[in-house]
Amino acid sequence: MSNEAIAEVIGISEPTLRKHFSYEIDIATAKVRADMIMARYHAAKGGNVQAQNKMIEQVSAVDVQGRRAPDRPAKEPKLGKKEEQQMAAEKVGGRFATPSAPKLVVSNNG
Question: In terms of pTM, does the model score above 0.90?
Answer without folding.
Answer: no
